[in-house]
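Table S4 entry, N(4)-(Beta-N-acetylglucosaminyl)-L-asparaginase.
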Amino acid sequence: MSERRKFIKQSLMGSALIIPGIQSLASPVKPALSKVEKPLLLSTWNHGLPANAAAIEKLKAGGSITDAVEYGVRDTENDLSNLSVGLQGLPDREGITTLDASIMNGDGSCGSVAFVRQVKHPISLARMVMEQTPHVMLAGEGARQFAMAEGIPMEKEELSPKAKEAYERWKVKSQYKPVINIENHDTIGMIGMGADGKLSGSCTTSGLAYKMHGRVGDSPIIGAGLYVDDEVGAATATGLGEAIIRVCGSFLIVELMRQGRSPQEACEEAVRRLISKNKNIKDIQAGFLAMNKEGEVGAYAVHPGFNFAQGTLSKNEMIDSNSHFK
Ligand code: SD4
């Protein structure tokens, strides 16, 4: 193992994002967000705003809620300025960009792709896995071959100029630092409810920058990065995937809502659980976003900085999430 690899492996074990200004544990914020009209779309981070707008356009054109959450996040996958979603995202430590995505409907149907290369719209490939295969998840080369068999053109494996420049800078020290809250542009998770009350969700990412080759995050793991159940509600996650997987974050939130918690209470409880199960919490960011089938909304994060877009037919706006640490 090269010295660089050894160093990264060690750094991975004690992840290293230092978030300034964290002083003390704060008391949990009480539910602040109220019931919203249908259809309703919620998306993580600032790029959620144009993604919601694209999803709403799809609904207005007669698309289903599944079409809306797919086409909404395709907008983010297309955004060349985005360094954490799509093929323009920051690469792994070998300089290769690999993508994770998942999609789920409230009737339990779901599909995902993990560690996939050269596919411009992994969310659409995840939907094909859901609708055209007997499986839930395809990974790596198998996912790429499935895409080719479905006639999806393979993109040239080439870093975007911004990603290349960042990678060259990173290589100087080759330090593994999970930088989350990247300029308020990170993984996009979108959950939506159609006018008929049916729920659907999507999640797509290039994952953590400079991750080990082959690393898969929470985003394509049903129950971790995304979970949707028409009987209860939907949840999605953003942040350090390892921490989110450890507590099955999105599934946990939906189950807490099933037991009677509001989306806000469920997100707060999931953050508390995540904090209790992860060491070095000062270095870990994670945020959850949820809605129940009544159209109530909740969001909560470990640290400040998480925000989300809330879109209806009449309004699409950014909302700052509260966080456990202040
Ligand atoms: C992952 N959850 O792969 C993703 C990373 C991310 O906002 O950027 N989340 O772990």
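The chain has one domain: 41-323.
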